[in-house]
Amino acid sequence: MLINCVAYQNGAKLADISVDHISDYVSLPGCFVWVALADATPQELQEMQQEFGLHELAVEDAQHGHQRPKIEEYGNSLFAVLHLIEPDAEQGGINVGEVDVFVGANYVLSVRNRSKLGFLGVRERCERQPELLRTGSGFVLYALLDAVVDRYFPVIDALEVELEQIEQQIFTKGAPHNNIQRLYELKRRAMVLKRAVAPLMEGVGKLHGGRVPQVCMGSQDYFRDVLDHLSRINGSIDAMRDTIGTAIQVNLSMVTIEENEITKRLAAWASIFAVCTAFAGIWGMNFEGMPELKWAYGYPAALVLILSVCGYLYYRFRRAGWV
Amino acid sequence: MLINCVAYQNGAKLADISVDHISDYVSLPGCFVWVALADATPQELQEMQQEFGLHELAVEDAQHGHQRPKIEEYGNSLFAVLHLIEPDAEQGGINVGEVDVFVGANYVLSVRNRSKLGFLGVRERCERQPELLRTGSGFVLYALLDAVVDRYFPVIDALEVELEQIEQQIFTKGAPHNNIQRLYELKRRAMVLKRAVAPLMEGVGKLHGGRVPQVCMGSQDYFRDVLDHLSRINGSIDAMRDTIGTAIQVNLSMVTIEENEITKRLAAWASIFAVCTAFAGIWGMNFEGMPELKWAYGYPAALVLILSVCGYLYYRFRRAGWV
Amino acid sequence: MLINCVAYQNGAKLADISVDHISDYVSLPGCFVWVALADATPQELQEMQQEFGLHELAVEDAQHGHQRPKIEEYGNSLFAVLHLIEPDAEQGGINVGEVDVFVGANYVLSVRNRSKLGFLGVRERCERQPELLRTGSGFVLYALLDAVVDRYFPVIDALEVELEQIEQQIFTKGAPHNNIQRLYELKRRAMVLKRAVAPLMEGVGKLHGGRVPQVCMGSQDYFRDVLDHLSRINGSIDAMRDTIGTAIQVNLSMVTIEENEITKRLAAWASIFAVCTAFAGIWGMNFEGMPELKWAYGYPAALVLILSVCGYLYYRFRRAGWV
Amino acid sequence: MLINCVAYQNGAKLADISVDHISDYVSLPGCFVWVALADATPQELQEMQQEFGLHELAVEDAQHGHQRPKIEEYGNSLFAVLHLIEPDAEQGGINVGEVDVFVGANYVLSVRNRSKLGFLGVRERCERQPELLRTGSGFVLYALLDAVVDRYFPVIDALEVELEQIEQQIFTKGAPHNNIQRLYELKRRAMVLKRAVAPLMEGVGKLHGGRVPQVCMGSQDYFRDVLDHLSRINGSIDAMRDTIGTAIQVNLSMVTIEENEITKRLAAWASIFAVCTAFAGIWGMNFEGMPELKWAYGYPAALVLILSVCGYLYYRFRRAGWV
Amino acid sequence: MLINCVAYQNGAKLADISVDHISDYVSLPGCFVWVALADATPQELQEMQQEFGLHELAVEDAQHGHQRPKIEEYGNSLFAVLHLIEPDAEQGGINVGEVDVFVGANYVLSVRNRSKLGFLGVRERCERQPELLRTGSGFVLYALLDAVVDRYFPVIDALEVELEQIEQQIFTKGAPHNNIQRLYELKRRAMVLKRAVAPLMEGVGKLHGGRVPQVCMGSQDYFRDVLDHLSRINGSIDAMRDTIGTAIQVNLSMVTIEENEITKRLAAWASIFAVCTAFAGIWGMNFEGMPELKWAYGYPAALVLILSVCGYLYYRFRRAGWV
């Protein structure tokens, strides 16, 4: 589905154009065409391939989808795959979309898949900064990258908030089963984010310093800025995964500690009642020569004795912190 | 066993030829011969060695089999070892075959071992793309690599599906013994795949960018595409291994949590019955001066008292979530 | 908020100047202006951007704050983000502030955020070493870096002291719940420090050896010294994190060992009382033909027997170290 | 102890020579001397040092023994330390010997220590391939390396077989104590192998590709082949160590699962008997007004009631899978 | 405290000189002065700084002490910090001293801190090898490094011996509490050694191969030898840390296994006595119509029945290996 198709010259918008006129504008000096598709059909992609001379392998990747994030050079053009991460409100999970961006000296083609998040805002912001847009199609790639990466921040923030909630539960309330399931789920979501971020870092790293593709030459500092954001997110994810691992371990420790306390309490009460039962058993025997059974105050004395022993045990266990 | 032996010139099939005529075609300009063997005998390999001038060490590796995946340069020719991974339907495990590929400027020799998966489809696809096949024997290597790597995807998918099944079991039903055995088995299978993929990545990485062997010069972008697929699989395996490790830990946690709950319940019921038995023991003693034994309503009063105490304990344990 | 604004020439202070006169001094040969802001407003930052020609992205980072530590080159100028770590006395936690430093050939601008720690001492020390300050604005960057990094040492020392306290608790007293919570908290604080140190190491590493930015040329040895301090802190943090991991594991082991001992003791006492109760039960049966019940010394003999068996069991358990 | 001392020229054996004549042959063009010692005395080593001009530090290393595997260049000569790993039949462990090889343009000196494995076979194989031996002393180094590395394969195979045996035990029979001890022992043996292989990989890696020592120039492909074998072994060891770690964890899980099952069974039977005893205790009380005691069918009714309750409990526990 | 101060020329000792005459000797061709200090005062260091023109930062490091090991270049001179590790006989721990070495073309200054280990032996050994000492001050640095590193070997050996002792305890006797405390302590000591060795490896690595500081040029092979020793120690420490981690895990497993066995035994005996008590309870009931109570052989029959049941249970548990 075509979202829009606009020609730019020297940083300023020339015109909204139809796909048929792309070839006219592409050949103008200092001019580039920016086409945005969403959930493109194979026909649309093929049309674009002919219009811009896209590489067969890149188009194949865009068609198949489900690629890992990457930025690849094909001759003088670039092919970028980015993951769109958005919280999935219905299922409480994470939805992963994909944007494929083809960038040449005189064109930018972005194809958005399986995501409702659009990039209209990116286009507007670019058009408001003509002095930057003048540097060419590479700046558009930066703007798209920046928009995609900026959307990772709220996702990682949400994960961190949930981790903190679970942490509080671990040390206070007693729902270890629930905690561990949430931690497991959290780790899984962190992994999804990780797999969007880590390969992208590698790709963006090649767009500044050292040998940089021609189209990105003028926006190096900007790509370094994106890389810096990615590093920050990546650092947060790694820290979070490490913390989740520790939290699972700590949760297990807390369960074992609780079991330990219950075992102690069980042992204490079992002892107290066993003593009581043993005494009662002794005086419940049917021997004939048991003089204490005949004493006037035998019974109360026995009760006092039993209670004293049990009380003493209770006192000892109490002091030891067992009951 | 010879599967087939075909000569190609400028991307087009010249003829099915017999092994004896290989040397005639090899010397034609722009011509290369593609020979496919399966479970080759030492004699066949020796014949090929003489025909194509293969390096002694490479032939030795092909003969011994059970090599780790690799891509090695011998002068101007390449020797590649690839693992063929196929689900083993009978045993529910994984079967590992091997393809050894020798590539020179004017020949490709593939030797398939211990696997029923053939490469006829690869040859057909190559012949349908003469403009690519024209780039030479390096493209055939790419086509074989691509076919082998594409077969890894369903294997990793199957592993991921099974992992999800086990995950659901961990948090719902109670078959920890079974879960852990399946997780262990799964990890083992993931390792088999890992050992097919990781060393191959290293090898393929040398076929694009930087200094590339002559025969692969024209297909660099294609080899990068294969590398990208391998990275994706490798990433999935690493994530899976990490997840399996966590799942084993989580499974242990769930067992400990369950044990904790049973210990609590045991402690609770033990207390209740111990109280009941202790009271009964007291009134079962044979002292003479036990006035309550003579009371008209002594027995019902005792029963009520015992039941009240036990009931109160039950209520307390219930509220604490122990029973 | 402007803290101060001073012009220096050849290592000596020229004058405290107002912001309006910055442009006059910046153009003098061998002269640079050092401006210090705290919690700067966007207006102040914008003013500075115009005065010194700061790069848009760097100013944006300084405005947003919450950056990861980094040292970035923008043309001939540098932009550094440093974390200020100070123990938070009230909450027992750690407070993380931020200093953003812009360094050009003829200016240094430091912006301090969310921290009460000032840098007046740094300015004084610099002014006392005119022979070093003469090397230019790069030395001021070093002095600020050095001051920031020096403040990490007491933080890591405090963490190490607390770790030692917990370690002693693990092996002596019995507060496993508390220990594990403190270890968890400690790890979290170590992570905060780690995230201040590790990215900074990367940044400082680019300021000595190899290709060094022009403004830092004369202070290379000094930056290496800072890097060395950072390496030391980083090594301490890594060792601490490793130790905390082990300590959590050890704490769990200690809990399990304690549980084991209690289980043993429980088993021992349960056996002793069970034997006692079983004997008493036997002689409490109502059979008629129980001759021992009629014996003169039946009762004492029974008591002696019961006590002997129980005593023997106790002796055995004692020797086995169970009770 | 001198094993043998032979002079070779252009790949062919010239003569068995005595140590005194070494200097005569060493100076012949295209000629090299191959000396093999076993458990050499300091005197023998000193003699060889003078004969071949060995470097002081290398000779010192050979004398002290217990070096880590390495391949070092001293000017134009090489010094290699290799570990000889052989299963120690008597103790069921692993015996680690050492071979020190000094290689110069016109000599090879191998010194074997603490091992009964000889290298006569290597010499024979070399002499049967004069076209390869002609490339010089570097090929002898390859032949020795190859022989040493080939002997690692049966060792790692034996470890893998044992690991599989233990794995079967973990999931079937119940000997967790034994399993864990065997796993620990296995890991230790894997470490011994690892320490023979990993440093050697590093050393051999320098003998092909890039800057290669002069004496190994002609045998680069062969050294790459050895490196490939080492990589395979190294990969197997790493996989095994990872698996052992998981197996220890799994074994612990199985123990905990078994404990869980026993706790359940204990809890179930304890409940059943506690109920039985409590009922009996009630009717064993000595109250007067207990009408059921006088009933004609009181006793059988009581027995039926007790058995019914116990039976019901048993049924419930059975269904829950506890007994 | 000045230990000694000697001038050397062409590898031979010239004279013991006083500090005042240093400047006379330093300017002689082919001559260098070797000064040894112990626990130097700031005054002594300052004097040396002026005498040899030491870099301010290096002197500062030497004054503060507690540096991490490193080897730094300051212009044409080197500054090395080494850790002196010695077993602390009194506390059973490890004492960490420090040697700071300043090396220039014509001087060596070593400053030893917080350690009783001296370097007189090093000086003697150097003087006995004039042909090596002739290569200059770099060789003295090697000799000091070698002496320091050689002293690490007995420390690591002692740690390995203790690890083996603990390992034997883990699988035989039952002192898990003690084992784990010793393992923890061992790991801590291994860490101290690690922190002495790992950074030093990095530093020494720069003294051979590639770009080597001028003063070390002639002793490259010797520094590689030190590096090799450090690698060996580092490998041992890493292996030990890995083993300690496994040992802690195994120790926990052994505790759990023991607990499992005790739980089994407890369950078994509890069952046996519970059965006995239940039977006795039944016949202790006060029902009237209990015909077996009146039977002549009722009592012995009851005893036989009880014993039979208990005996059968015992037999079953025995066979299952529970008691």
What is the second-level CATH architecture of the domain at 1-129 in chain A?
A: 2-Layer Sandwich
CATH domain fold name of the domain at 1-129 in chain A? Beta Polymerase, domain 2
Identify the most extensive interface between protein chains: A-B, 56 and 43 residues
Poorly predicted runs of chain A are: none
State the oligomer: homopentamer
Could you name the CATH class of the domain at 1-129 in chain A? Alpha Beta
Instruction: Tell me the distance between the termini of chain A.
Output: 70 Å
Strands of the largest sheet of chain A, in order across it? 2-1-3-7-6-5-4
Report the total helices of chain A.
Answer: 10
For the biggest sheet of chain A, the summary is: 7 strands, mixed
Helix content of chain A: 55-70%
The CATH superfamily of the domain at 1-129 in chain A is known as CorA soluble domain-like
DSSP summary, beta strand count of chain A: 7
- Rg for CA atoms of chain A: 35 Å
- Judged by helices, strands and strand pairing, the structural class of chain A is alpha+beta
Shape of chain A: rod-shaped
Mean of residue pLDDT values of chain A: 89
Beta-strand percentage range of chain A: 15-25%
